[in-house]
Specification:
alpha/beta; 2 domains; two-stranded parallel ribbon; 3 helices; 11 strands; peptidoglycan synthesis; glycosyltransferase
Amino acid sequence: MRMTAGYGRRGLIMAGLTALIMALGACTQHAADEHVRGGVQASVHDLDRHITSYVSAPKPRRVVDFETREPPGSIVVSNSERALYLVLEEDKAYRYGVGVGRQGFSWTGRNRVSMKREWPDWRPPAAMRRRQPDLPVHMPGGPANPLGARALYIGSTLYRIHGSNEPHTIGQAVSSGCIRMTNADVRHLYDRVRVGARVVVRN
């Protein structure tokens, strides 16, 4: 009887431990699921909060006098000045320092912002991969991604106005045609530009 009673007590203890482990396991799984779901929703916020490349451009953004026929909300890029202007009311504009296309890759023209993305993925065009075979076919968004914290896509072209994980290149002609900004500046621009806004790139 004692052995049966002892076995019964051990059985109860084991059953209790098993139930506790299962309960903890269920809580842990639920918490993990919540964390995963929350992580997806909060990933942009977390990346923005922890990014280390939010540094000032060689010429920090500022409001300047800027006469243009383009309506407020338009973007005007000057390749020669290495500057991007966001047109404001009353002949004013935000002026940002940017990096532009290197020799043979710079361009001019008019288009519109067709899409906006936070921490965008990067898929190098086939022509770029032929020039640089070590490039990946796809790179997910994040601090190591060359497109940086934000991207504004220009029409149906391959060009973008985007952030950069190489802020030291701002003010230079180094890209394959895209317009580079510091991550801090591209966030500032992104929040003020709507899809459909005009984009004018000039010499």
